[in-house]
Amino acid sequence: MHFNLEAEQGLLDYIIHDNDHVIRLGIEEEDFLEISHKKIFKHIKSCIDNAASANLISLRPFFESSGLKESAMELLGSRSGLISASEYLQILRELRHKRELEEITLSTKEMLSDASKNSQEIKELIIERLEAVSIKSQNQPVSLGKAAREAFAKDKVVSISSGYKAIDKIINGFDLGDLVIIAGRPAMGKSALVANVALRLAKEGNPILFISLEMKADQISKRMIACLSSIHLTKLKNNNLTTQHEFEAFQDAITLADTLPITIEDNGGLTLPKLRYQIKRFVNKTKGKVVIIDYLQLIKHKTKGQRVDDVTEITNTLKDLAMEFNITIIALSQLSRAVESRDDKRPMLSDLRESGSIEQDASVVMFTFRPEYYLERQKPDDVVKLRQWEAEMQRLKGVAYCMVAKVRDGKCGDAKLHFEGEFQRFSEIDNNNF
């Protein structure tokens, strides 16, 4: 049994004398194993949640009415002056994790004997349960001076370029620990944009994890090769290269792709525990700082609650993962159909689908918008208007906007880019060469 009576008593003694330990250290009921200690902590936590003090005097009626007077007496003076509250919690948290891992081991044996489950299902269940055991170091308060010195250390990487000067001019690059949302209606190029970002960053030596829940790895690779080779995507899809130039460009793109540190995970049944496992494995193996997810509404949720609540937990988790691993997570998001019903098709924050917490959790929210797409569907019959329409179509041909609607440390604005749909390529407006 993974249990330490003295540590549980010592931590409770600390808590009774200073309730702030509960919030400051993030102490939870599951950190205790002894039933009486669980009851005492649960009552203290209830007092704290209701803004009431939980000390020896105020707790006396509870101890007497619940038959825990003897347990309470054992707590008095049980803490050692040589061991801090955080050290007690570290001992208990380690024991708690071992208990949880032991339960997983026992349940694994049961699953292995279940003929209805194949090895792949068992593997995925084990991974989910292992990643649900959140083993984290206890964060300690840091003085302003120490935090400032670490923040301004010369060798400290605090942000990564988006790969586009026009975008960086607005957001100053992607900060580590941030959740970045890129949203847009279908055909606006949001998947193409993040694929271009991945290619540009990878060419600079940055490892990239590209998690796709919508397209398979071969589909993504064809889009990236089209971008790198300047070969029409349709030709690549149909394996229809017809000229020597195309064959050479294709071979050069494949050779370049071999050198780019991009890892593609295509998993249509991705859950939050699996996501955490994939990110942890990527960071440990490559020391990479950028994870791209296409797209967040397709992440599976184990509960069957309201979709807004599910998306809230998903975005909360993505933000937590970005901070835990000190990386930038770029997640694509859908927009509601409200955009299509307006005369002005430019997206707004309120268009974010199931937007309960997407805007709140994200440090940056950007929209992809191609006015050419909507204008093309408004072709008039009138001859005079047709000429005006053709002139406007020519002016907007290839024009795309990356609209920064929220940025935590900067001003919002529109980055104007050039989009070549046949190559799935975004480039700077003043330099169309990738």
- What sequence of helices (H) and strands (E) makes up the elements? HHHHHHHHEHEEHEHHHEHEHEHEHHEEE
Number of helices: 18
**Overall pLDDT score:** 84
What fraction of residues sit in β-strands?
A: 5-15%
- Radius of gyration equals 27 Å
Shape: elongated
| CATH class call of the largest domain | Alpha Beta
- The assigned CATH architecture of the largest domain is 3-Layer(aba) Sandwich
**CATH fold naming of the largest domain:** Rossmann fold
Q: Could you tell me how far the N terminus lies from the C terminus, measured between alpha carbons in angstroms?
A: 61 Å
Largest sheet report: 9 strands, mixed
Q: Please estimate the helix content.
A: 40-55%
Name the CATH superfamily assignment of the largest domain. P-loop containing nucleotide triphosphate hydrolases
Instruction: Name the poorly predicted regions.
Output: none
Number of strands: 11
User: Could you give the order of strands across the largest sheet?
Assistant: 5-4-6-7-3-8-9-10-11
How does the helix and strand content classify structurally? alpha/beta
How would you explain this protein's 3D organization?
- A hairpin with a 4-residue loop joins strand 10 and strand 11 (425-428).
- The longest helix is centred in the first third of the chain and has 28 residues, at 85-112.
- The protein folds into two domains: 5-132, DNAb Helicase, Chain A (Orthogonal Bundle); 159-428, P-loop containing nucleotide triphosphate hydrolases (Rossmann fold).
- It contains 18 helices and eleven strands.
- The protein has helices spanning 5-17, 20-25, 35-49, 56-65, 69-75, 85-112, 119-132, 144-151, 165-171, 190-203, 217-229, 233-237, 244-259, 272-286, 307-325, 358-361, 371-376, 383-396, and strands at residues 159-160, 174-175, 179-183, 208-212, 262-266, 290-294, 328-333, 364-369, 399-407, 413-420, 425-428.
- By secondary structure, the protein is α/β, with parallel strands linked by helices.
- The protein is elongated, with a radius of gyration of 27 Å.
- It has a nine-stranded mixed β-sheet, sandwiched between helices.
- 32% of the residues are buried.
